Amino acid sequence: MTPDLFADDSHNWFVPSPARRPRAGTANAAASAPLTLHQHIGFQLGWDHARHGVTPPRPHTLEPSSLQQGWHAGLACFGTHRPVPRRAVRQWLQLRLQAWLRGLNVELLHITPNHLHQIEVSVCPITREALGHAGEPAAAAAINRVRHDAGYAAGNLAVMSQRAHLAKAAHGYGSAWATAQALQAQDQAPAPLGAPGAAATCDGLSAAHWSRIAVLCSFVEALPHEQACELPLRLLPPNRLRLFNPAQALQVFISRQLLSAGWSQRINALEALLPGLPAQRAFRSFFQTLLPRVLEAKGARGAQESRWALEDAWAHPAVLQRWTRFAQALTPAECEAVMQQATAGHIAPEGVRFEPQADALATEGWCLATRGHVPHELACDVRRPHAAAGAPTLH
Predict the structure, then answer these.
(1) Nearest Cα to 18, choosing from 50, 45, 46?
(2) Predicted pLDDT of residue 352
(3) DSSP character string of 48-66
(4) Phi/psi of residue 76, each to 5°?
């Protein structure tokens, strides 16, 4: 079973005239030709642009393609006068267009405008800089595929700054963690006499930044239980991210207790669910080490600063040491059982829920076999929509 822990913190376009629509004979001839899966996706994308009243970028309206065909077919069905779409719809179409151009798969059952709205953040979780500054491309928000060998699918997306997005690139947990450790070693090395003590960086990011990238990547990679128990929670998982490792899911589940009122009673109740006195004593030792460091840093600041205080408390060696001792005393199944019982007993903090999920379903729609790309095959039993048919069928 794979833990599925959701932390719910819950351009001007022009519309072409009808004269640009294709002639009926041309459209019918194109519709009779078999479609590859990539062409079918392009046709769906063009259709959805017309359905929502968004004109694709100019090259795609002029150059023949399956997207252009879908857009013209959609215009014939829906017309040119459509309500102005909300920003999340535009973002959804833009994401799908970028993925289509790169041959990457977008799992459309769950990746909707509403999903993109749910994962929005105002601050980059990696660099902790505010997002969306006008005139600062590095601070623009970017939707990142956390696992680079997977497509755009629910549980694999996180929003971060463009700077962090470009630096992370194809890094996974292993390479990001190695980069963080190397930078940390450079920072701790004695500096030459008289030299400034500037922090070492790689691609513009410090050791702390890379450690957050590494932990983010580790959430969606199945790690050996002992290894997952040894990782500090330097980053709380973004909203709707899927957690593959039961030890990390429990780590997040416990840590987030401190972000909402009533945590003391919930922690005591959660401790009572642990299997046996040794595990309960190890948990108490860990939590009593974590708690003062969080409370001291958190103070009376806002929700965002409280989140950072919790993440920074995990940088203390004693916290990690005692967490590892406690977590390794449990099996993955026991970690899941504790969360299930806590959720059933209403011990989970507000906005946090645990849902066990079969491993086969955890990466459904991720296209891991093709490293996130659309398979090279014909679309099966796909028919383009006609004027009276509504939106195209999704396969």
Answers:
(1) 50
(2) 61
(3) HHHHTT-PPPHHHHHS-SH
(4) -65, -30
310, 347 Cβ separation under 8 angstroms: no
Q: Residue 335 — pLDDT band, cuts 50, 70, 90?
A: very high
What are the residues whose beta carbons fall under 8 Å from the beta carbon of 257, sequence distance 6 or more? 263, 266, 267, 270, 349
Q: How confident is the model at residue 20 (pLDDT cuts 50, 70, 90)?
A: very low
Supply the pTM of this predicted model: 0.86
- Nearest Cα to 173, choosing from 125, 254, 232, 130? 232
29: pLDDT strictly greater than 70:
no
Q: For residues 155 and 192, is the Cβ–Cβ distance under 8 A? A: no
Can you tell me the mean pLDDT for 240-268? 93
> Which of 225, 223, 203 lies closest to 215 in space, CA to CA?
223
Handedness of CA 120, 124, 130, 136 (dihedral sign): negative
CB 50 within 8 Å of CB 69: no
Least confident of 195-204, 245-254, 296-305: 296-305
- What is the number of alpha carbons within 13 Å of residue 36 lying toward its C-beta? 12
| 333 vs 197: which has the higher pLDDT | 333
Spell out the residues 6+ positions from residue 138 whose beta carbon is closer than 8 angstroms to its own: 161, 162, 163
Give me the torsion for CA of 339, 341, 345, 348, rounded to 10°: 0
Cα-based distances in Å from 58 to 11, 12, 16, 79, 92: 12, 11, 10, 18, 18
Among 363, 131, 116, smallest CA distance to 243 is for 363
The dihedrals phi and psi of 25, each to the nearest 5 degrees, come to -65, -40
Distances from the Cα of 370 to the Cαs of 103, 105, 244, 376, 379, in angstroms? 11, 9, 20, 9, 16
Beta-strand relationship, 141-145 and 2-7: unpaired
Q: Pairing mode, if any, of strands 2-7 and 352-357?
A: antiparallel
Beta strands at 352-357 and 157-161: parallel, antiparallel or unpaired = unpaired
Quick one: tokens of 191? 């500096």
Decide: 5 and 243 in contact? Cβ < 8 Å: yes
Q: For the segment 163-179, what is each residue's pLDDT rounded down to a tens digit?
A: 999 999 999 999 999 99
At 104, list the tokens. Answer: 């990457």
Q: Which residue in this structure is represented by tokens 């939106």?
A: 391
Residue 82 pLDDT: 81
Q: What tokens were used for 204?
A: 């513009």
